[in-house]
Write a structure and sequence with these properties.
Pfam families: SKI. The chain has 175 residues and is α/β, with parallel strands linked by helices. It has helices spanning 17-28, 41-48, 55-74, 88-95, 110-118, 130-136, 156-174; strands spanning 5-10, 31-34, 78-82, 101-107, 147-151.
């Protein structure tokens, strides 16, 4: 029997994680967990005040992401968890104790992401903090063989389609 599976939709702010994740989850009938909803209050207040998070701030948040992935696996559910997972050590923390994790990295240039960020409304992340996200980002290397790169320099529907195909391909290899 196929155990639960967590697909972590990762990338810097404004790569479309929540919008794409919502569309993909709806299309495939998967559970969606938005990592932004798992941030402790102190992190939300800090980001809303225009300050980037540091590793210490992220630790309890990453524990919550790890627990959500574990919950999916233990309940034999498949779902998408939206979270930035910018550094390898963050991804490793999410992987810890979880057997069925796969990352989809929404990858785009600083200029493209900045343009999209400026068009957003009602999000606690400020455009000025994008540079800190890119500075923090450690692009996955070949040693992280559980990561699929998704180029976001396409229309929304194409990015969703690329994610759907990647998830279906991964699920087919597990069946």
């Amino acid at each position: 029997m196929l155990k639960g599976k967590a697909f972590i939709l990762m990338g810097v702010s404004s790569t479309g994680k929540t919008s794409v994740g919502t569309a993909v989850a709806q299309q495939l009938g998967l559970k969606l967990i938005d990592g932004d909803d798992l941030h402790p209050r102190a992190n939300i207040v800090k980001m809303a005040s225009g300050f980037p998070l540091n590793d210490q701030d992220r630790t309890p948040w990453l524990e919550r992401i790890n627990d959500a992935a574990f919950s999916l696996e233990s309940k034999s559910e498949t779902g998408i968890i939206v979270c930035s997972a910018l550094k390898k050590k963050y991804r490793d923390q999410i992987r810890q104790g979880n057997q069925n994790i796969h990352f989809l990295f929404l990858n785009g240039s600083f200029e493209l992401v900045l343009e999209r960020m400026k068009a957003r409304k009602g999000h606690f992340m400020k455009a000025e903090m994008l540079k800190s996200q890119f500075d923090t980002l450690e692009i996955p290397t070949a040693e992280e063989n559980d990561v699929t790169f998704i180029d976001i320099d396409h229309c929304f529907e194409e990015v969703v389609s690329l994610c759907v195909k990647a998830i279906q391909a991964k699920l087919n290899t597990l069946a």
